[in-house]
Amino acid sequence: MKNIYKLITVIIFTFLSVGSVFAADITADELVYDSQTKTVSATGNVVINDGESTITGASGKYDFNDKTAILSGGVNYTKNQDTLSCETLYIYSDKTINGKGNVELDFKSENIFLSGDEISYNQNTGIGQINGNGYFKSQDGIIRAPQIEGHLKDVLITASGGVEITAYTQNVHATGNELIYTKSGTYGTDGKLVLKGNAVATQNGNRFEGPELVFKEEEKVIETNGRSTMTIDL
């Protein structure tokens, strides 16, 4: 679970790379500038390249008034090994990016993959969100939930709507209504994961049930709060 916070790091990486890309080369089958609305529309085989990263899509539009951009139609972003794909990508002047429609982020350099119906992140606030079919996978495990939110600056991750967790290193599989993950800074070792509401976890044949289960990374223990049941495989 120690790399759960990197869920948001992936989205930051994407924004920093994409946010300034419109100063780079833009090619398309058709480019139209509207001097009245101060917008540029690109249609057909749109390619944006800044020398380090590339974004492609079927169409795109950039508004010089509010400095926002939209790319749509099988959008793909590539930088070195890392990729982003979605149906539509929005980039806003307040440093928010928003991907919609089968969004996938494959951060191969960090061995992290996440996906969802919609993913957004704001660099100023440090808040990111996955809405719909949220999925996060790292070398440590997998989190599935309808909604996953994170605050990178405070290292606070929440998931709700029915959560499923698989932790490889601790050999734990768990489910619950909601999840809260906290950590004292990016490199802290005191990570704590709290699973609330009908929480059930299995580890090495042992089963834990209760209204709340607490996983502590440093101590490598599972604690139960409230009236709980523990079944031990002898």
UniProtKB/TrEMBL annotation:
Gene Ontology CC terms: cell outer membrane; transporter complex
Signal peptide residue numbers: 1-23
Superkingdom as given in the UniProt entry: Bacteria
Keywords for this protein: Cell outer membrane, Membrane, Signal
Keyword 4Fe-4S included in the entry's annotation: no
Stored Gene3D superfamilies: Lipopolysaccharide (LPS) transport protein A like domain (2.60.450.10)
Domain Organic solvent tolerance-like N-terminal: 55-153
Name by which UniProt lists this protein: OstA-like protein
Species this chain originates from: Dialister micraerophilus UPII 345-E
Taxonomy of the source species: Bacteria, Bacillati, Bacillota, Negativicutes, Veillonellales
